[in-house]
Design brief:
single chain, about 450 residues, alpha+beta, five-stranded antiparallel beta sheet, 12 strands, binds adenosine-5'-diphosphate
Amino acid sequence: MKKKINIQLMTIAVIAIVTTLLMAVGISRDLFWKQIFEDLRTYACLLENTGLLEDGTGLEGDFFRENLRVTLIDSDGSIIFESHAQADTMENHGSRPEVREAFASGEGEAVRDSATIGKSAFYYALRLKDGRVARVSKEADSVWHVFTDAFPAILLTLSVQIAFCLILSHFLTASLLKPIRQLARGTDDPGKPDTYEELAPFMATIRQQHENILKNAGMRQEFTANVSHELKTPLTSISGYSELIENGMASSEDVVRFAREIHRNSNRLLTLINDVIRLSELDTAEQREAFETIDLYEIAETCVNMLQINAEKNEVTLELRGSSCLIQSEKQMLEELVYNLCDNAIRYNNKDGRVTVTAQPRGEEVVLMVEDTGIGIPEEHQERIFERFYRVDKSRSKSTGGTGLGLAIVKHIVAKNHARMSLESRVGEGTRITVVFERVGSRRV
Ligand code: ADP
């Protein structure tokens, strides 16, 4: 960036210097020419008024030989008099531009360069009252000659200017970049007015991202700590029971009981690990390409059938209501969603309780409702039960095989499906969780 700004500043400086130089040369050339023609005209008028142009006598002195060349031209273009040459040896001058112009409009001017001697000849022609034309001319160094003469001085000035610009652009760039450097070093105070206001939105985004990264890192750390803690409990049990068996400290009756405990705790570990893996899978980028048209009612039916035995074991009635309703989703995800909700509704229910699953279309949408007549969720916990490992009653969750991750998985699935979820619950009365999906074919193009 520094290099780029430097180069751009220098480019601007060089362009400015060169154009100024060219313009100065152009303007001085114009002024120079103007001055010469002005002089020539004065001479011509003077000569006419002094009567020296009558026949040319008196124009042959040293003054004219050294400074001014005078030519007297007849109306047919032939030379009557020439101060620097024999008039009769000269060709007709009627076609010279300045002469032609003077015959036509009263006066004429011309400049002719002689590259070989680096000089320019300036001509001014004036039509006299008697119809003849008097031409005065003078030689001067051509502008280019003047320019080449002055070249070393110009080059020196240019070098000094460019060197000065280089140093100036170095300091300018440094001062331009100072606030950005400060920001990069993190020494910026957001309220400080000398940072660029144009950078404020970038800084806000970066700060926001930084905060999000910190928050995510914190959450990940907390999750890792929770997972380790959750894994530790069943593993400690397994280790303890197997050690007792190993040391021969368990009677044959105990062995069966211990083995059952080991089995139960290993299952618990497996479920936990599966849930953790599933959560991390759902955490990765959205993959909607695997989505297909699915009948939510059919999925609910499968889950209800799968959980029927479980419900009976808990002395809970599980029933399905509704009708066929199509949505865009992924089968496994949808099964997990319905299964987790129904499983909770059974596990946190009372004896002789009821669980009603409803899947049906409603206008442009499809609604899944899982209602139970269970223990309910106190209001202060309702917001948090979708967090990982958050449980209202830890011992009930564990004794019924819960991992504390079921609703976290549900929340992820709902987000992946761009669906919305709501919860209504009253302690002692029951809970109703509603998920609303977009219905297939409802999207207007
Ligand atoms: P768990 O494996 O502990 O059931 P979840 O994430 O599925 O974990 O649920 C989190 C907590 O929310 C549960 O521990 C329980 O306290 C509460 N909960 C979930 N569903 C219900 C429900 N239908 N009725 C009452 N409480 C519920």
